[in-house]
Structure formats: C-alpha cells, structure tokens
Amino acid sequence: MIGMTETRGSGLEVQGLEKRFGELRAVDGLSFQVGPGETVGLLGPNGAGKTTTLLCIAGLVRPSAGQVLWNGAALGPERGRRVTLISESPEVYAMLTVWEHLVFVARSCRLPDGWQRRGEDLLDRFGLLEQRDALGESLSKGMRQKTLIAASVLAGTPALLLDEPMIGLDPRGQRELRDMLQELRERGIALLISTHLLESAETICDRVVILKQGRLVAQGPVAELRERQGSGQSLEDVFLEVTQ
Ligand code: ATP
Questions:
Q1: What is the DSSP string of 27-86?
Q2: What would the pLDDT profile of 38-62 be if each residue is shown by its tens digit?
Q3: What's the gap in Å between 23 CA and the centre of ligand 1?
Q4: Looking at CB atoms within 10 Å, which of 32, 90, 110, 119 has the fewest?
Q5: Which CATH class is domain 12-243?
C-alpha cells in the first residue's frame, strides 16, 4: 500500500463555520463532515461561499467563528499535515521539477528512506513519469494538479480539498482526474471537491453539500436528494430548486 493515510476516525468535520467580510456573511454557520475514503461535492451558485469554505478549512483564511476538526481534534498550526488544498489554478514551484517536488515533500516531512520507490510508483500511477524531470513552469494545469496530489499522497495527508478541479482540463485530463480521485478514495483519503459541474459531481461524489449565500440548503447522497425532490428529478433539478 502506497502512502500512509490514516483510515480510522471520523475524518474531517466542519462545525458552525462562519466567515464575515464586513457586513457580508460569506459562510454562515456551516457544518458538515467528510469521512475517510468519502468524496463529498461542495456545490452552490457563484458567490455561495465554496472557495471561502475551502480556504477556511485549509487555514488560509481565518474564520469569524466555528472550527475544523480532524478525527475529533481541532486543527491547529499542524493542519498542513492533515489537509491539502489544490486551488482552481494549482501552483507549483516554477524552478523545481516534478520529481524535486516529491524530494521537497519527503525532506520536509522527514520521510524514512525508501520513499523514493513509493514516489516513482506514484508518478507511474498518476501518468507523470514522462514529466519526471520537467520544470514546474512548463506543466499544464492537469500536470500541476497531479504533481500536487502525488506530493500530498506521498506525505500521507489524509484530507484533500480541490477547488474546481475539472475546469480547464480536456476530456482525457478529466477522465484521468476521475480515475485518480477513485484511487485516492480507495486509499482512504477524505475528498472535498467544489464544482459547478453537476454531472461530474454525480459520478464522482458519494454525497453533496449544497450552499446558498453561505448557508447549507441541502446535503446527502445524490440519489437520496433526487428522490426527495420527486421521481425523475436530476441533480440539476434539485440544485435549481434549493438554490432559487
Ligand atoms: P464561485 O462559484 O463564483 O467561485 P464561491 O461559491 O466560491 O463562488 P466565494 O468565492 O467563497 O464563493 O465568495 C463568497 C462571497 O464572499 C462572495 O460574495 C464574494 O464576493 C465574497 N468574498 C470572497 N472573498 C472576499 C474577500 N476577500 N473580501 C470580501 N468579500 C469576499
């Protein structure tokens, strides 16, 4: 088994999260959970608070209230060991090669010797072997995403947040990402994915959380939400109904 992902416990828990920008409540009392090995889609119209939620979970924006826990313990300064955020425009080090990104992670996490074989294996699994010695500045969005995901798995980070990961990927890139996400799920990683692509959410996610103006307006497995809404309803129908 590659990676040293924790597979026990309740996973990622967001409790009463609030973020105010002046008068605006960008995130307004949000609570939900993402279990280990579970994939949750974070949906909502433009401005609903999806990115702000991800930034708060990752510790890049300070919440006005609420907390984020991993396996029941509030995340503090060590949250980088628990959560990786891959933004809509994934950023890698321009002057490091793909392999050097893995070396960087291995050294900063003080991974025991032998990580190199796991690193090579990850590059192979994620279709990055050809880019092993390519500089970060030369990588496409899909390759940058894969590099960061490989680095996160190598570090054994148990939760991965992806902001609009499908946008800008060609059909092959989207397929590869879906396969990668499936593999991450099998490794027990908790995945939280913000997306506007409802079809992708339907195929990738075990559950979805739908936001409107910072508030949770629906959550649950897609099939359950569709049933609740009435027979023959698509996720799009549910989305439009609860966010209107
Ligand atoms: P989109 O789907 O368009 O990416 P989103 O659901 O990710 O939207 P956010 O980017 O989280 O939404 O924004 C939520 C609200 O917070 C919006 O009204 C936005 O204008 C506001 N907002 C976000 N960041 C800031 C900031 N730094 N200062 C002030 N307002 C902000």
A1: EEEEEEEE-TT-EEEEE-STTSSHHHHHHHHHTSS--SEEEEEETTEE--GGGGGTEEEE
A2: 999 999 999 999 999 999 999 999 9
A3: 13
A4: 110
A5: alpha beta
